[in-house]
Write a structure and sequence with these properties.
Number of helices of chain B: 5
Radius of gyration of chain A: 19 Å
Low-confidence stretches of chain B: none
InterPro entries (chain A): CO_DH_flav_C (IPR005107), CO_DH_flav_C_dom_sf (IPR036683), Diverse_Substr_Oxidored (IPR051312), FAD-bd_PCMH (IPR016166), FAD-bd_PCMH-like_sf (IPR036318), FAD-bd_PCMH_sub1 (IPR016167), FAD-bd_PCMH_sub2 (IPR016169), Mopterin_DH_FAD-bd (IPR002346)
CATH superfamily of one domain in chain A: CO dehydrogenase flavoprotein, C-terminal domain
Keywords (chain B): Iron, Metal-binding, Oxidoreductase
Protein name (chain B): 2Fe-2S iron-sulfur cluster binding domain-containing protein
Mean pLDDT of chain B: 96
Shape of chain A: globular
Number of strands of chain A: 12
Pfam family, one (chain B): Fer2_2
Bound molecules: flavin-adenine dinucleotide, iron/sulfur cluster, FE2/S2 (inorganic) cluster
Largest sheet of chain B: 5 strands, mixed
Low-confidence stretches of chain A: none
CATH architecture of the largest domain in chain B: Orthogonal Bundle
Oligomer: heterodimer
Protein name (chain A): Xanthine dehydrogenase family protein subunit M
Strand order of the largest sheet of chain B: 2-1-5-3-4
Structural class of chain B: alpha+beta
């Protein structure tokens, strides 16, 4: 691990100021991803600004939205009574990820910004455009069973590993930022960028920008929701494919639908085309099949991950059937 | 200052790279927390920080400043073992014992989570007011602790018996 300085921030303003004043600084949430990557010499920040003790409040704001401080732990979000009652898909997604110990430390901000689990990204002996821009991508022709089928580029086929992000993508969440140039808000769906020819640029965050909170509008009152994740063992493993779905059925017809996919792309993937197929159509297996086909219509398999396409389609159909 | 097993420790953390795990083992001399993988994959390093189970290998020692840390050396009561440790012996909850300190700390933190209403992936109702500690729940909630000897049946039996009537 490369040497670094460590300081703890007591409030948002001092965190942003500290990061701006220190070249090569990174924010430290729980550290469950960053410390690991630093130990592998994949991340080499010169300074850490610990933001894990910044505001962590979870609750409904005067605007009716659910607000979660970026430093709230994944466990505290999943256990929150309001989250579990009115936003159950958030709690479900969280408890489908990592382990009890990791969820106790992992923060909301850190979870959204965790890096890919592509093994070549972790292996400093391998070629990886994300780690070393311009060096190549050993995954494209290598072991790419875990990799992306949607939105990938010849330069990078990595996936985003967050479960929480997939639920938040289905819920139209917003991410609130503070930075040297002030505060701003971005839609969660716009937070991550597709790789294109710059896979090392993963988000729209400007240098030194801090996530301060995530807010979520209430889902349609009559919608039922579910988070379904398929992985290679029952627990404590990243998604091969996951599905976050909200479905509102009235008189046998789909009144509204939201569908997001995990494990398939470099960002939580909102399947808007599939939602359009569903909305206004009869809530039947035939409709769900068409929606699932539409969701994966643009998918492009690599040598070892072709199974993800029918797998994602089946999980979409079974989740929608369960909710209808 | 970090309170470790009830005693304040002022041992200086001179290198910010020091993990909490290395700090406990090398600087403080507590060898209960084990280093299995050093990358968050096995749970052998599990300790309690302010009563919550965490992985000491992915925590920087500096992050624990001002916190209260409990390792397996500190879970016993009145000089004896915790009832959970007795149950591990009773049910053969280990073979080589390498994972055991992490299993014990993890199970104590897990029982507290159940008492606080933290749901799990297998909870029948994510919004339920309380959760029963069925063997399925125990297996899911303890999935962050691997046991290479495969003593899982004994581990689950020990936890189930200990927390039959809720956490102690
Ligand atoms: C064995 C293992 C299994 C796992 N399984 C899963 C799984 O199944 N599903 C899943 O979703 N996750 C899984 N995880 C990943 C885990 O959820 C993440 O490591 C965790 O959510 C990261 O949160 P953190 O607070 O620890 O982030 P850190 O490690 O502290 O930070 C991660 C990144 O976010 C940045 N950052 C942190 N906070 C902020 C902020 N407020 N503003 C701006 N930048 C910030 C950091 O600079 C860093 O780049 C697993 C991890 C491990 C080790
Ligand atoms: S897929 Fe992306 S992260 Fe993986 S080796 Fe290729 S460039 Fe690196
Ligand atoms: S040593 Fe910490 S999880 Fe394996
Ligand atoms: S008892 Fe040997 S690893 Fe669990």
């Amino acid at each position: 691990m490369k040497p670094f300085t460590y300081q703890r921030a007591d409030d948002v303003a001092s965190a942003v100021a500290a990061a701006a004043a220190t070249p090569g600084a990174a924010y430290l949430g729980g550290g469950t991803n960053l410390v690991d990557l630093m130990r592998q010499n994949v991340e080499r920040p010169a300074a850490l600004v610990d933001v894990s003790r910044l505001p962590a409040r979870i609750g409904i704001g005067t605007d009716g939205r659910l607000w979660m401080g970026a430093a709230a732990t994944n466990t505290d979000v999943a256990a929150d009574p309001v989250v579990r009652r009115d936003f159950p898909i958030i709690a479900e997604a969280i408890v489908n990820g990592a382990s009890g110990q990791i969820r106790n430390t992992a923060t909301v901000g850190g979870n959204l910004l965790q890096r890919t689990r592509c093994l070549y990204f972790y292996d400093t002996g391998a070629r990886c455009n994300k780690r070393e821009p311009g060096s190549g991508c050993d995954a494209v022709d290598g072991h790419n069973r875990m990799h992306a089928v949607l939105g990938a580029s010849p330069e990078c086929v990595a996936t985003n590993p967050s479960d929480l992000g997939v639920a938040l993508a289905a819920l139209d969440a917003r991410v609130h930022l503070a930075g040297p140039a002030g505060g701003r808000t971005v839609e969660l769906l716009d937070l991550h960028r597709l790789p294109g020819d710059t896979p090392h640029v993963e988000t729209v965050l400007a240098p030194g920008e801090l996530i301060t909170a995530v807010s979520v509008p209430p889902p349609p009152a009559a919608a039922r929701s579910a988070y379904r994740k398929v992985r290679e063992r029952a627990s404590y493993a990243f998604a091969l494919v996951s599905v976050a779905a909200l479905l509102e059925v009235r008189d046998g017809v789909v009144a509204s639908a939201r569908l997001a996919l995990g494990g398939v792309a470099a960002k939580p993937w909102r399947a808007a085309v599939a939602e359009a197929v569903l909305t206004g159509a009869p809530a039947t297996r035939a409709t769900f099949d068409r929606a699932a086909a539409a969701a994966l219509a643009d998918a492009r398999p690599l040598a070892h991950n072709g199974f993800k396409i029918p797998l994602a389609q089946r999980v979409i159909v079974s989740t929608l059937e369960e909710l209808s | 200052m970090i309170v470790i097993n009830g005693t304040p420790h002022d041992t200086e953390i001179t290198d910010p790279r020091r993990s909490l795990l290395d700090h406990l083992r090398e600087d403080v001399g507590l060898h209960g927390p084990k280093k299995g993988c050093d990358q968050g994959g096995c749970g052998a390093c599990t300790v309690l920080v302010d009563g919550r189970r965490v992985l000491a290998c992915l925590t920087l020692a500096a992050q624990a400043e001002g916190r209260s840390v409990t390792t397996v050396e500190g879970v016993g009561r009145d000089g004896g073992l915790d009832p959970l440790q007795e149950a591990f012996i009773e049910h053969d909850g280990f073979q080589c014992g390498y994972c055991t300190p992490g299993q014990v700390c993890s199970a104590i933190g897990m029982a507290d989570e159940v008492a606080r209403g933290v749901p799990s992936r297998v909870s029948p109702e994510i919004g339920a007011a309380s959760f029963d500690l069925s063997p399925d729940e125990i297996r899911e909630r303890m999935s962050g602790n691997l046991c290479r000897c495969g003593a899982y049946n004994g581990i689950v039996a020990a936890i189930e018996e200990t927390y039959l009537d809720g956490p102690r």
